[in-house]
Amino acid sequence: MRFRVATLRAIARNEITAAYRRQERPPATPGGRQRTGVGELQIGEVKQVEAVTDAEARDAGFADAAALHADPFLSGDAPLWRITFTLAPDPREALREAVPDDAEADAILDQLATKARRAAFDPLARLHLIAALPARRAPDLAEMEGLETKTFKRQVRQLKELGLTESLKVGYRLSPRGAAVLARADDRIAP
Questions:
Q1: Fewest CB atoms less than 10 Å from the CB: which of 59, 94, 152, 191?
Q2: Residue 87 CB contacts under 8 Å (≥ 6 apart), including other chains
Q3: What is the spatial distance between Cα 3 and Cα 13, in angstroms, rounded to a whole number?
Q4: Closest of 136, 116, 135, 132 to residue 124, by C-alpha
Q5: Which of helix, strand or coil describes residue 152?
Q6: How far is CA 91 from each of CA 64, 95, 109, rounded to the nearest angstrom?
Q7: Strand pairing of 165-167 and 80-88?
């Protein structure tokens, strides 16, 4: 599911706890999760509905049921689905703080080596760059590496998924987990 920026802000304030979509199949899976710009949504009920009350419409950020039905994104003949959700903590936040022991760090380094072979980029080089230049703009870092910004950001997102980096308002920094993994990598290659 995609959300407008204003809707995401309202979700972050816990003002919106439901969404409506018109499509042939269910737009989400109960119990599933969806990452958004404000965190992860834990999907609750996914139900095809015929009618929407004013209170249910307000749960989705509309003034009333009439406003919901007037929304051009909800027009059409496809079934109308109500999706409830709660904002759940981003599991990457806890992962970033989880400093691995040597065995776990070695397993992460093996994973990064596999990624380097498959993805044609050196994850350790990215970690070293971010460690050396925290809070530096992504376009600046990308230019230093001779990459398009989009490509550089995609590579850093892969590191973020492993809990090794975190995004700042401007740029990135290593997480405690990332710093420990990088230190372990340096220990492994030290004479």
A1: 191
A2: 11, 12, 14, 38, 39, 40, 41, 42
A3: 15
A4: 116
A5: helix
A6: 34, 6, 20
A7: unpaired
